[in-house]
Amino acid sequence: MSGPFSDLTDTLFADKSVLSESYQPEEILERDEEIEAFSHALQDVLFGREPENIFLYGKAGLGKTAVTKYMMSELQSEVFEREEVDDLHVHEINCNGKTLFMVVRRLVNELLPADASPFPKRGLGTGDAFDELYAQLDRIGGTHLIVFDEIDHLDDVDTLLYELPRARSNGHITESLVGIVGISNNYTFRQSLSAKVKDTLMETEISFSPYDAGELRTILHDRADRAFVDGACDESAIAKAAALSAQDMGNARQAIDLLRVGAEVAERDGDETVTDDHIEDARTLVQRGRLRNKIRDQTEHAQYILETIAKLEERNEVPARSKEIQEGYERVAEAYGATPLTTLKSIQDHLSDLHMLGFLVRHERNKGLSGGQYYEYELDLDPMIVLETREEIVQAAD
Ligand SMILES: Nc1ncnc2c1ncn2[C@@H]1O[C@H](COP(=O)(O)OP(=O)(O)OP(=O)(O)O)[C@@H](O)[C@H]1O
After folding, report:
1. Distance CA 308, CA 325 (A)
2. Do the beta carbons of residue 226 and residue 267 sit within 8 Å?
3. Which residues contact residue 266 at a Cβ distance below 8 angstroms, ignoring those fewer than 6 apart?
4. Which of 58, 251, 256, 318 could form a disulfide with 62 if both were Cys (CB 3.0 to 4.6 A apart)?
């Protein structure tokens, strides 16, 4: 029997899941100093003392989550070994898009006994949710470490950071100990806290810096060893993925993505080894994917404007002035059954935003002797990406 899948054999991957987002590495590489600072801050837990509060800062993909997961699991094992230490409970919650009430309620529900009814969504306030949280922490006892990921996204973070670290000294809890681990992409987070919180919050701050090419190479090497069958990935492909990501933001997630997509390209082409060329192709694919998402994030009218400029570009009618773009835009908006924005000023505002966001190149022109200046615009990306993305969006909406 032969069918579309009958010829397929996996010649590249030994375990592809090692390159997936959900994979938690057993070993954390190139973060010795951060791990050392983290262990130091956590050591009170092993002596039954109140934990220090810990804040981790750093841009995306620098290992904050991976290091935290690793530290929590190492600490759990150590607590388990030392029978004299009370139980350790670790709770993790992502704060993005949540109110303080939602976060505290979620924690309460995690702590409640399995047969208890959940904390009500309505009718009670944040103060009530905190009271229930304290009651549950004391009912369970031991040490509780609560990891708040994207803590800077929380609406009323001041209250959280004023309440929880003081729960014991204020007598709200007596049978348990609680510590906070806050994770944030925003280095200025601490400055945004109220003076009252800033002055009293005792914490250790650990900052994660971008990985350099050598560090990324070590991380990728380790992944490649586990992910690929022997000899299926060139050393220079690893070096290339590491170098490209180091030049960008030093982001390990991006480096791993390049390696995975590069391997998918090799697989698609029927090649038995991942090479530099595959990583180069992966870069283009990953960049296109990012651009597509960025276009999708724009408002409907901003997208019409981008589509208009892409069409002008296809007819070699760029760079174009805002008046010309407005005329094309009106036709595009109407073709989608939308009512176009009417003033030239509103189009110019959109053009200026799209320029700031890096979608457009802007040329400043002078009107010769009559004086005065105006701008002309063209896309700073391949018009096909805009047109294809728009088509996908329209088809998905049908
Ligand atoms: N030092 C490291 N050793 C091994 N793998 C790592 C290391 N740093 C990061 N990674 C891997 O890179 C990816 C991104 O890391 P992680 O999710 O920890 O980043 P983050 O700093 O928490 O970023 P974000 O804020 O975007 O979540 C994960 O797959 C993680 O396993």
Report:
1. 7
2. no
3. 12, 272, 273, 274, 275, 278
4. 58
Q: Is the dihedral of CA 177, 183, 189, 190 positive or negative?
A: positive
Over range 125-132, report the average pLDDT. 96
Amino acid present at 294: K
Mean of the pLDDT values across residues 111-115? 95
| Cα R_g (the chain), whole angstroms | 27
* d(C-alpha 265, C-alpha 315), whole Å: 32
* Ligand 1 touching residue 301 (CB < 6 A): no
For residue 127, what pLDDT band results from cuts at 50, 70 and 90?
Answer: very high
Give the H/E segment covering residue 136: helix 126-140
Angle between helix axes 276-296 and 235-248 (nearest 10 degrees) is 30
CB of 147 closer than 6 angstroms to any ligand 1 atom: no
Residue that is written with structure tokens 């010769």 in the block: 368
CB-ligand 1 contact for 64 (6 Å cutoff): yes
Q: Is 255 in the pocket of ligand 1 (CB under 6 A)?
A: no
pLDDT of residue 368: 76
Within 10 Å of residue 332's Cβ, how many Cβ atoms? 21
Please tell me the distance between residue 327's alpha carbon and the centre of ligand 1 in angstroms.
47
Residue 200 confidence (pLDDT) above 90: no
Instruction: Decide: 63 in ligand 1 pocket, CB within 6 A.
Output: yes
What domains sit in the chain, N to C, each tagged with a CATH number?
31-207 (3.40.50.300), 211-295 (1.10.8.60), 298-397 (1.10.10.10)
pTM: 0.83
Using CA positions, which residue lies closest to atom 6 of ligand 1? 63
User: Is the pLDDT assigned to residue 376 strictly greater than 60?
Assistant: yes
Please give the average per-residue pLDDT across 236-250, as a whole number.
Answer: 95
211 assigned ligand-binding residue: yes
Looking at the chain, how many residues does it have? 398
With 0-12 / 13-18 / 19 or more C-beta atoms within 10 angstroms meaning exposed / middle / buried, residue 277 is: middle
179 CB-near residues (< 8 Å, 6+ apart):
45, 50, 51, 52, 53, 54, 143, 144, 145, 146
Q: Residue 32: is its pLDDT beyond 60? A: yes
